[in-house]
């Protein structure tokens, strides 16, 4: 490294300081928020190093900000990868579309990145590696941004100068929504994609620089004299190939935009009447070779040998490598055709290669349009501008503008587009020696393409942000070379800094608000769903259970409770999604039961705050109230479903919400099903519904002992002495007929409770002895929380005990902590 390059490098590190301070401020505020929300409600989880998650029962504790299902999935898959016997490439999962599972085609690099951070945390702290994955998810985004900040700033300072380094470091820290893509707790591969795309653009500009000694002032000149250019282009292709590996549909537009930039360079050279043909030619074949070889290598690394025949265009495959080679050849031949000395052979080859590239691009689109191949699957996150809580969600740019109007968020996102307009104006200028046309064209192409894509889907503003560092470098080179006064050049640099100010203001405002704001509705929902998942996991036992719930809640139950589910909000899980819709929207209980049994379904969960299945499940039927979901909403469960009482934790803002949990059981007789429903209503404080069921039991099943027990409990809760007297008399009559032997174990516990309430203590003691003699783990989990608590109270009151210490410990674990304290 020369002395001048060394000075630029050191000055670049100084330029990094403000951006690094801003990164520290944002990261500290956001991490504080993630930890504060996660610890807002106390959880009852025990550490278990043998568990893949690090917690007993496969539970997870971290609250993922923004209910980011993709992040939850990355955490689950990384823990699966690091578990004993785990595969370094996750190709199958069982947590959704259960019990069949599904194929996973998502690429591995981000799992490896999370796994690397988790292993470091595990080695340093000694935590179980499963918990270390949660810890890694907290910091994976910020660490990636830090590495990008330091690496890019040092590199730009070395190759392009201090001002370019200062602008790039500021942009990487403050661009919005790009700067909000590296959030603590929301660990997604989108952050890694942005790093690779940013690196690809900057490396291309390094190839356009005549050499280290020339510095930033001559970047992008035509003709070129950089012997290292092919290697820089090869490195840019490598970075672009990795981004294509991560997500082709998000990366391909930028690769195509680079191709547009290459065409503009050739057009500018032709317009400038360059006489030296070879001097202006750029090593596009090296760029294409780097990208194509990386594409093929990553395809083989990721999917060999079992999945090589599956050429899904949503993931990396050789098709993209062929298209890339064709694009490189088009750029090379187009360059030669436009400049003096171009031959007919060049033009024929250009026409042939262009036709091939067009065919490669058009074929999958036609297949998709005709329904022969599913290329584009609806991505629910494509309409989301940013993962920051409260960020805009709209179908496209115009819908966003119409709904929200001109706000600071709008300014922060759109103001950098002024740089694209400036670059376009410079490219339309007559060719002069002060214009670094090659650099501007190379940076303009992908920025222009992504600006258009961003108008179609909001998420692409993040990829647009990845093109801005290259554009800033190119425009800085123009300002440095412009034959104007220093004041004018300083104003140009200042103008580029000003474009970044709204993003800095917005991110600062969001960070300060998050630090002191009360929990949002989405955060409270996440806390509730975590508690529900932990409770349901304890009820299900060590073997777990398969759950039917709305897709978002299903993912929360899978993530926090280690359970399995059917439908989740992932495009690859169509089979599980359709199965959940078929069960919930079944026009008869028998059809729903058949599908539920085929799927080994264990529980159905119906939250009041998520009405997805209420809206979509009945779409295939003419009478929505007569679907299974409609029956459950009106408290008419079929006899193979038993309601299980669950009380939401007391969290401000959620007092009016509720959740109904139904357990799949053996077919119950009508009296038993209604009796359990009545006791459910009592435990949930729904006394009007409980009274109605008790009246139906008295009229329809006056001589049934189980019905009399339920009526007793309802009357006691309603403080109705007359109804209580009639019910306890019917209980005694049933005992006289020796009908207690016909009751299931949980109904005999209810019988003991009813006898205690009726002051029939000797009979109650005998029932408790019988229950303790037959108690086991499955029987214990069949009890409601109140029934279990009262069984333990009666056991202690009558001087009895549970002989099996494991059963006793399980009974404690099934109770909430506040009830354990009262025993």
Structure, described:
This protein is mostly helical and about 800 residues long. It has 3 domains: about 5-30 and about 140-515, no CATH class; about 520-665, Rossmann fold (3-Layer(aba) Sandwich), CATH 3.40.50; about 745-823, no CATH class. It contains 35 helices and 7 strands. Strand 3 (about 545-550), helix 21 and strand 4 (about 565) form a beta-alpha-beta unit. The N and C termini lie far apart (about 75 Å). Mean pLDDT is about 85; it is low at about 210-220, about 220-225, about 275-280 and about 365-375. A 5-stranded mixed β-sheet has the order 4-3-5-7-6. A two-stranded antiparallel ribbon has the order 1-2.
N-to-C terminal Cα separation, in Å?
A: 74 Å
Number of distinct beta strands: 7
**Rg from C-alpha positions?**
33 Å
Q: What strand line-up does the widest sheet have?
A: 4-3-5-7-6
Q: Roughly what fraction of the amino acids lie in strands?
A: under 5%
The shape, in one word, is elongated
Mean pLDDT reading: 86
Q: Uncertain spans, ≥5 residues at pLDDT below 50?
A: 212-218, 220-225, 273-279, 366-377
Keywords: Membrane, Transmembrane, Transmembrane helix
Transmembrane segments: 146-178, 190-209, 229-246, 253-270, 282-301, 349-367, 406-428, 435-454, 460-480, 487-507
InterPro entries: TAT_signal
